[in-house]
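Tutorial sheet, problem 5. The two components below are modelled jointly, 690 residues in total.
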Amino acid sequence: MDQFTINLLFVGASFALYIGIAIWARAGSTSEFYAAGRGVHPVTNGMATAADWMSAASFIGMAGLIAFTGYDNSTFLMGWTGGYVLLALLLAPYLRKFGKFTVSEFIGDRFYSPTARVVAVIALLVASLTYVIGQMTGVGVAFGRFLEVSNTTGLLIGACVVFAYAVFGGMKGVTYTQVAQYVVLIMAYTIPAVFISLQLTGNPVPALGLFGEHAASGEPLLAKLDAIVAELGFNEYTAHHGDTFNMVLFTLSLMIGTAGLPHVIMRFFTVPRVADARWSAGWALVFIALLYLTAPAVGAMARLNITDMMWPNGASGDPVSVEMIEGDERYNWMATWQKTGLLGWEDKNGDGRIAYFNDGDADTVAKMQAAGWGDANELTNFNRDILVLANPEIANLPSWVIGLVAAGGLAAALSTAAGLLLAISSAVSHDLIKGSINPSISEKGELLSARVAMAVAIAVATYLGLNPPGFAAQTVALAFGLAAASIFPALMMGIFTKVNNKGAVAGMVSGLLVTLIYIFLHKGWFFIPDTNSFTDANPLLGTIKSTSFGAVGALINFCVAFTVSKMTQPIPQEIEELVESVRVPRGAGVAVDGH
Amino acid sequence: MADQTNHGAEATQKSDAAYWSANVRIIIISLIIWALVSFGFGILLRPLLSGIAVGGTDLGFWFAQQGSIIVFLALIFFYAWRMNKLDREFGVEEE
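Model answer (structure tokens):
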């Protein structure tokens, strides 16, 4: 059986499983559609949250970013896990006690203001939609590669699958489907990592192998990696090179953004009790940590493997020959990925060898020239996003592992897309239509409008995924920045302070707008190319990149909200009582529909 | 009778306030640890910890790539356990 058939088999079998579960767990009532009838066990809920949370960015993108940058990209590891501490301590139990269905419902009731609710809906629609565009782009790339079809066809197939189970399933269908997706994606991520860790260090646990010994040389793995990349003129893997202030700010933005993304928060409405909401966040992080503790090992080991392949006799020996890349079956992956346009090499000096080194470093260029390998890096393109998907091929693992990774990458992208679509549909049908436009809408009408909203959202996301407004990472950064600057501060102030309606609205609007403008100034207005006035290499404010601005936006939100609140009327008695009641678990019943 | 009910309500209010300040204290301590392991050991204080070797690199690198995640996990489970205990101490748990 060839690789294509095996990929098709794995991807097909996993999809049949997800769709089967979605049909089996079809939602009947509104309550089931949004919150799975609150019958979900904390461990199950944690697993579904983990699948929901870990998107194409975590599965496909993150290890590649760490592999080629090293220590400086630890920000992703700390940022995307540290947010769960904020969620568990500052938001989850209180929102469950409040006992409504959506994030904007809490903001609308707590700040006794339909305006606050609409602002929250807009913020979460913008954040979710931009996030889902990034996912659809990832779906297109992964489908295109593994089904060997064009990016466009891959994206359209993916859109149909997401549509099928998100629209017909609702939260209950999505919850159980996501449990299955979690199992597929975690196996797909860890199994190749275990193989590679065994090959390189003899330790079956990748997270321990990372800090273990490199079996071939007897040196510590990381010391070995530091030495070889430094010899080729790259930054030492474990050393700190970037700006420290921006690193702190970026990590903080990712953390606050995590705790402000509506599709993650919504998960904590689906547990039976307040105590379960506290445990649920912990279980979610357990399942997320399984991937996040493996990711840095995947990154470091892949970097070492790739460097070794390009310099089979060590950095002071001969670089790999063109003949070997084209003839040796261990190098087959290079030809496969070259076809996607995401990997490229060129024998610039015509010596029949591909020399991989940092040609931006004068000393290394001089050294390479003296050795006769030319003055230019000949591994011309290595897209960061292909690293995880190509990793089993690079390590020469069996073909069923490659098929499994294909299914896992798609599971990660599809599960997040489905969760986000659910958040979008509930924002439109529950918060906008039922909450503001037509409060007397029937339950059936509400369900229908939820499904129509999903269909429209996926159509928009697919269209924008075909013509993406920027790279997936930029789109995801915008989503995080917006959630950090708007939703998280409003929720936190709603629980921990007595900020009033005007303060909350002013805070959300200013946080959202300033962040949006800062991003547009650096990435182009509405992401239209060449309309930007600044670049992230040379940002407007000091060293603050547009991707790190969410934390500043959140600070602005807090400051404006407190100032405006101080200058206007204090909150009424019944809201004071609402705040007091949200703080205490006693009397948390089943959630009620607020209308 | 009415007086007694009033007393009861006042007592509940007082104990709710004590419960809340106990909760806030636990949150603050937890968040100090949260910031210390990530922003502290993982980033800002890494140069100070560079003398402590861990598997081919230093302690700061370990905290940035592994240690902080493990501490985050411990913090969330500690908080859930401590708060569920606090709920019972103050008699505010759900039925």
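Marking note: Chain A has two domains: 3-290+397-469, 302-394. Full credit if you identified this.
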